[in-house]
């Protein structure tokens, strides 16, 4: 038994998982920061977090198979580590006494990364399928038209006859004058 060949993801379908991975990276980082007692990032920290999410989203969009769960898992995990370090510069504090992240926070990050990678992989497969259908449906196959030697149109003796027929089919009647006033 042979395995099925992997289909290449169309370029347009790569944008959906890339955007989702970038948005999820920033959202999880801000949510975890807020849950741990920190406020919303502002100023340079927010700009750097946006730059991080755009970079990771672009990285995911360049992956040949955007539905690969392992690569998405790795990118999202690195994104969480970098986002955590980035927000740590801005004064992110950990709930534990010695400054290390708690087991609950690590479990929450891990669960969010695994669920996020699974959802993005499923969305990537769906986007690739929809993209392939749209490409197939809008493909324009051009077939050459066969030229025949017979003439399809015959010249008329009275070329304005068609205009007379057209004007005879149009109604020139309007509403009664009494109703128009």
From TrEMBL:
Q: Which UniProt keywords apply?
A: Membrane, Transmembrane, Transmembrane helix
- The residues that cross the membrane are 41-60, 72-91, 103-122
Q: What name does this protein carry?
A: Uncharacterized protein
């Amino acid at each position: 038994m042979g395995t099925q060949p992997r289909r290449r993801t169309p370029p347009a379908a790569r944008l959906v998982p890339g955007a989702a991975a970038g948005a999820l990276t920033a959202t999880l980082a801000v949510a975890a920061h807020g849950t741990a007692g920190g406020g919303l990032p502002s100023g340079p920290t927010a700009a750097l977090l946006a730059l991080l999410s755009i970079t990771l989203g672009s990285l995911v969009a360049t992956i040949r198979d955007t539905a690969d769960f392992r690569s998405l898992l790795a990118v999202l995990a690195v994104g969480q580590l970098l986002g955590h370090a980035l927000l740590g510069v801005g004064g992110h504090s950990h709930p534990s006494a010695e400054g290390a992240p708690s087991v609950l926070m690590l479990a929450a990050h891990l669960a969010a990364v695994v669920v996020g990678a699974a959802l993005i992989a499923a969305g990537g497969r769906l986007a690739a399928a929809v993209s392939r259908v749209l490409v197939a449906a809008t493909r324009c196959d051009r077939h050459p038209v066969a030229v025949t030697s017979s003439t399809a149109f015959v010249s008329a003796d009275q070329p304005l006859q068609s205009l007379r027929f057209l004007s005879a089919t149009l109604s020139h009647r309007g509403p009664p004058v009494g109703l128009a006033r």
